[in-house]
Amino acid sequence: MSQQSLNPRPLIAGNWKMNGLQAAIGELNALESGLGSNPALMATTDIMICPPATLICAFAAAVGSNASKIEIGAQDCHWQASGAHTGDISPEMLRDAGATAVIIGHSERRSDHGELDRKVRAKAEAAYRAGLKAIICIGETAGERRANLTLEVVKRQLRAAVPDQASGKNTIIAYEPVWAIGTGLTPSPADVQAVHQEIRDALKERFGEPAANNMRIIYGGSVKPDNAKDLLLTSNVNGALVGGASLKAADLLGIISAYA
Ligand code: PGA
What we know:
- The protein is an alpha/beta fold.
- Helices cover 43% and strands 15% of the residues.
- The chain has twelve helices and eight strands.
- An eight-stranded parallel β-barrel has the order 1-2-3-4-5-6-7-8, surrounded by six helices.
- Strand 2 (46-50), helix 3 (53-65) and strand 3 (71-74) form a beta-alpha-beta unit.
- Helix 1 runs parallel beside helix 3, helix 1 runs parallel beside helix 12 (249-256) and helix 8 (150-161) packs parallel to helix 9.
- The structure holds 2-phosphoglycolic acid (PGA).
- 2-phosphoglycolic acid (PGA) binds at residues 15, 176, 181-182, 220-223, 241-245.
């Protein structure tokens, strides 16, 4: 299947979460050499790795010196540029370290740190200010899905968490059902398609058709090499946010090859 003309171009982003010591650069090197030996993979797909903050500098330097096109992203940011916020990192600092994007509002941030949509939106606006793309995560819990509230929840999150300045250039929407993250469970491809269609329609209503059609809507939650084709080659799915399976270059290459 030729995906050369896919528009917007798919993005496979690896979210390493709180995993990886300095030696993990070996996986980045393995990913680069895997991509180098199969140019069809990067011809069709944008690739990003979001390592923990401690590795951003080293990873950005490594991909820069190899002239690789792998982008390096971060997993969270503060909404201010600098100041008295012990332990936090501003988007300007992430940019300075070599990141080009930042994941915002991941469900683990929402549950571990009580982040609400209002804060997610402020962080996304801060990312734009620093020239970073914002990967804004939305998705329903298991209880919300059981109560048939999935579409309502994602539309509410979109309205509240996505800034008015969002465009295809600065924003990627990640639909991540909370119950599918790290569990091995996934929605059916038809369910993914239905939610992504609803997200696309909501974006069209708010931002107009051309802008909405340019905005990538990626799926996340237990994406693996063996389910990637089924989940990703579906209309309105423009890539994936991959957690566990992004830690091993071979698995991530298997997922990327869904588009080759
Ligand atoms: P998973 O995580 O692929 O391990 O389910 C996805 C995510 O949290 O982004």
